[in-house]
Every structure is written in structure tokens, then in C-alpha cells.
Amino acid sequence: MVALVNTKNANNRSATRTLAVFGLLILACAPLLADEKGVTEEPLFYPQPPNEAKLQFLASFSSVLDVSSKNKGFRDFVFGGKEHEGALVSKPYGVAVHNGAIFVIDARGNGWGVFDVANGRSRMVRPSGRGSLQKPINISIDSDGTRFVTDTERNQVLVYDANDRFLRAFGEKEQFKPVDVLIMDDRLFITDIMHHKIHVLDKGTGETLLTFGEPGSEPGQLFHPTNISSSPDGTVYVADTTNFRIQEFSGEGEFIRTFGGAGAGPGTFSRPKGIALDRENHIYVVDAAFENVQILHSDGGALMFFGKPGNERDSINMPTVVKIDYDSVEHFRKYAAPSFDIEYLVLVASQFGQNKVTVFGFGSLRE
User: CA 268, CA 288: separation in Å to the nearest integer?
Assistant: First the structure.
């Protein structure tokens, strides 16, 4: 894999100048992409030349028609061009990908939407009865299709099978206020913003195996941990949101290091939330205040960032989470420029704006 753009030597520049240069996005020279009416659009690549393109905007998903029709004129005719009309999900937060389908939590709609790109259809799931949701936030999906959904009103993690049928709920009264859940082998790692710690449960029984973290701002302490992810070797990364940093722990909860901090320059944060790692241990961090995604080296040094607020086809507005997926790439190749080879997908959820979920491909342009 070609190295990403390294900005560590830019520390002597002012934060404003650094961000202005660092964040430029481009329209790279590449074949035009045609929609269903034959209208062509330039593919969007990042970062700016002379650096090699690493990411391509592929598609955004909001409307029930987005998996079956990319004809914007038809959508505007049906829905009058209104931002929220026809949206499958009203207020997205968590995102997961499984078997070519994007699952998007609707924090306002008490369920999750499914953009099934592989099969060209969409649906909305709103569980009822004992499995009903009150304020769902995040979703993680196991290899067998089991869904784990955090609910900050019920203060539980709810479990559903691959057919969306409710199985069980984890969490006793006052045990935690869960925001995110990480599946790692036979364990669940749950961020708790009420007690400022991480709970590790048995995936099958919900039994607490260990907890780590405590309120505070010292290394290893947490203040409003929101999102959580892991590297291929099992290292755990936590978005320590109100401490403006990322913290790294072993799979047994032992503190390793911290990086980031409050600031406006590369490698610093204002409101870090979603976090994801690729197989090379590059760290993707969503910043809900800057409304972008930073890519960091495994040592925490800034490499590049992408994304900007607005009403463009690649815009992200108040983003919440970022997810990386290798398994569903084939289902999204149709959105890529013919000369761009996708290695993995990068998905970003936005709470506002016309794009509920924006999908990028990480890869390289062929000569």
C-alpha cells in the first residue's frame, strides 16, 4: 500500500494555515461517471495533487430510492427536493456493514434502516415488545449476523438475530449507559458514559468479565468515552470525547498510551467520536465539531483528513461514526471510477444534511 501523506513536519506552521492546506479536496483527472440519464459527474478523489489519490467518494445513502436509483431528478420530482422527505432514517448515529448491506441506527426513529446494496432494496426495522428500542445509538454485527444495539434510554445492549428477531438484553439497572459496543471474539466491550469506564461482557451470557477506566483526565482515566474500536492484534482504542483524545488499551484493559488533545491542528480534536482502524493500523477518527475525519498513523501522528460540511454529494454534517469494511467491497465497485482499485470501504454517518451515510473507497488509481 502506498504511504499516506505525512504532515508531522508541519508543526511549525500556524494551525489555520496548516488546516487550510491539509484539508484541500480535489477533483482528480479520471473518467467521468454516468448516472442513469447519462449525465456525467467528475469522480471525487482525495487528497490534493501532487500526492496520490487515496480515497474516492463512492455514494451517499439517505432516501429509500438510493439503493435502486441514483437519478436525482426523479427523487426531486417525487420528494420535492426536500432534504428530509423520503429519508429512510431521520437522525442517524451508528452504522454497520454486513453482506453488502448498510445498517443505520435511527436515534429518533427507534430502530434501524437497512440499505441493502447487494440486493437493491431498503427496509426499516422497528422492533416491538420486549425488544423495542427507546433511544438506540450504535449497532455492531457479528459474523453470523447477530445484531448488538446500544440504547441509552433503556441503558441496555439489546441483541437480535440475523432475521431481526429479539433474543435478549444485557444490562441491569444503573449498570451502565452504553454508547458503543465492540465485538471481539467471545467478548463485548461497551463504552459507559455514565460511569466513564469500559465494561467487558461475555458475548453469550452478558456476564461481566472485567471493567477498566475511571472518571478523570489522567492517562488511563476517561471522561465520556463514546466510541470504541480495535486493531487486528486486539488492541482497544477508545474515543475519550470530553478529554479530546484517543486512548489505547490492551484487550485486558491495561493502559498503553494516549494521543491527541484539544486543538485545531492535525492530530488534535474538538469533539472526537467515531473511531475505526484498517489492517495497517491507520486510525480514522470522526470529529463532530470540525465535521471531518482524520487519518492518523499508528503512533498517533496525523496523516491526512477528508470531509467537509455542506450540501455537496460528498458532504458530512455533524458526523458521528466512521466504519471500515473489507468484506463488502465487491458490492460497491459499481460506484468507483474504472481506474480506481478499492481496498476497503470507509463509511461515515451524519446527523444532519442531505447525506445520512456517505461511503468512500480507500485504494489507488491505476496508471
Answer: 13
**Position of cell 473518467?**
31
Q: What is the DSSP letter of 222?
A: B
Closest by CA to 253, choosing from 199, 302, 327, is 199
Q: Name the pTM for this structure.
A: 0.86
- Contact (Cβ atoms closer than 8 angstroms) between residue 180 and residue 137: yes
- Alpha-carbon distance values, 52 to 1, 4, 5, 302, 313 (Å): 11, 8, 9, 17, 22
Cα–Cα dist 348/360, whole Å: 8
The answer to whether the CB of 354 falls within 8 A of the CB of 83 is yes
- Pick from 362, 360, 325, 323: which is nearest to 343 by CA? 362
How far is 102 from 62, CA to CA, in rounded Å? Answer: 11
- Cβ burial of 82 (10 Å; 0-12, 13-18, 19+) is exposed
Question: In whole angstroms, what is the distance from residue 238 CA to residue 140 CA?
Answer: 16
Q: Write out pLDDT tens, residues 24-80.
A: 333 333 344 444 333 358 999 998 778 899 999 999 999 888 987 544 454 454 444
Q: What is the pLDDT of residues 150-199, one digit of tens each?
A: 999 999 999 999 999 999 999 999 999 999 999 999 999 999 999 999 99
Please tell me the least confidently modeled range out of 31-35, 105-109, 143-147, 301-305: 31-35
> What's the one-letter identity of residue 139?
I
8 A C-beta contact, residue 132 and residue 173: no
Q: Report how far residue 106's alpha carbon sits from residue 21's, in angstroms, rounded to the nearest whole number.
A: 35
324 Cβ contact partners less than 8 Å away, ≥ 6 residues apart = 276, 277, 278, 284, 344, 345, 346, 347
Cell output for 249: 488499551
Report residue 316 as a C-alpha cell. 458530512
Question: Of 22, 42, 18, 20, nearest to 30 (Cα)?
Answer: 42
Residue 161 CB neighbour total at 10 angstroms: 12
Q: Which residues lie closer than 8 Å to 332 by C-beta, 6 or more apart? A: 58, 59, 117, 342, 345, 359, 361
Are residues 31 and 338 in contact, defined by beta-carbon separation less than 8 angstroms?
yes
Report residue 129: phi and psi, to 5°.
65, -140
